[in-house]
Amino acid sequence: MITVNVDLGDRSYPIRIGAELIGQTELFAPHIAGSSVTIVTNETVEPLYGEPLRAALAPLGKHVSTVVLPDGEAYKNWETLNTIFDALLGAQADRKTTLIALGGGVIGDMTGFAAACYMRGVPFIQVPTTLLSQVDSSVGGKTGINHPLGKNMIGAFYQPQAVIADIAALRTLPERELAAGLAEIIKTAAIADAAFFEWLEQNIEALNRREPAALVHAVKRSCEVKASVVAADEREGGLRAILNFGHTFGHAIEAGLGYGEWLHGEAVGCGMVMAADLSVRLGLLDEAVRRRLVALIEAARLPTRAPALGDARYIELMKVDKKTEAGTIKFILLKKLGETLITDAAEPALRATLAASL
Q: Given pLDDT bands bounded at 50, 70 and 90, which one contains residue 321?
């Protein structure tokens, strides 16, 4: 097992990375102070990992309940969030009740938001079971739900007590979900670590084959980068925005198609292709680097052609973005591997990128 620490003073926490971690009681014990635990999971993950997690918690002598939600990005909304609150209130959960998010990014985001809101804050633990959630959404304390007009526009910054990333859970991951996670790993390398990007170019097939050593290294390095960024800028006042490379275009794809039509990582993968194209058009990035990025995204079996939503619709959707200022869309663009720039873009260049990406 490898541990990466997120350094946030008295809100610091460990990220545990390794195989067969869900069943290890000692990983959970230090982070559960109260007498009750509520597991929040979904109908896909519950049959796979619900019982192993409950078995790990049994020796602690806690009262354990489970909330099983429908699976999918389409359910990341107020109605589903209220299902969690209904269960907590029905069970008379108190301020020391610990929530455990067992699932992918949707479960982690909603459980964290529920924890932030219930009784104005109860502890929670992230147990991410998808590659994307292990390398991205479970780390850093961003929680929330979607709104029909914008993705992740309603939420809170709320840090977990711990993240327990069990690599063994990736064995049951569908191919599309694996690729979606690789998108966030590629993003991390592109914005912060040129050497890691080169490692990915050399090891992408090992990751596609789910070789454990390659997965552990990729998850570890991605978490190290994100932990350092979050420690420097927890609430996205500046530096943390670089983690949104590809997301301005990607969120527009998700919202425009309808949440769940494309997986988040698929949209981010295509969004990175679009952001790299815009970077070249603005004279920031060398064309050869853009080609390397596109080749790696293709090797990860991710889409590189955007859906035809129309220029006006893309621009409309991108304006509903947390980085937009006074109606001006802000983009995270590449200057070179490992170096980014947050800027706006002249409309002719943006429209040229949209035209080239469809």
A: confident
With tokens 């006074």, the residue in question is 326
**CATH assignment, 175-357:** 1.20.1090.10
CA-based radius of gyration for the chain = 20
Mind listing the pLDDT tens digit for each residue in 144-193? 999 988 889 899 999 999 999 999 999 999 999 999 999 999 999 999 99
Beta strand extents in the chain (DSSP E only): 2-6, 13-18, 36-42, 63-69, 98-103, 124-128, 142-147, 150-157, 163-166, 331-336, 339-343
- Measured CA to CA, the distance from residue 242 to residue 203 in angstroms comes to 24
Q: 2-172: what fold?
A: Rossmann fold (3.40.50)
Domain boundaries, the chain: 2-172, 175-357
Maximum separation of any 2 CA atoms in the chain, in Å = 63
**Sheet containing 2-6, strands listed edge to edge, beginning at the edge strand earlier in sequence:** 2-6, 13-18, 163-166, 124-128, 98-103, 36-42, 63-69
pLDDT, tens digit, for every residue of 74-84?
999 999 999 99
Active site residues: 120, 142, 184, 226, 236, 240, 244, 247, 251, 264
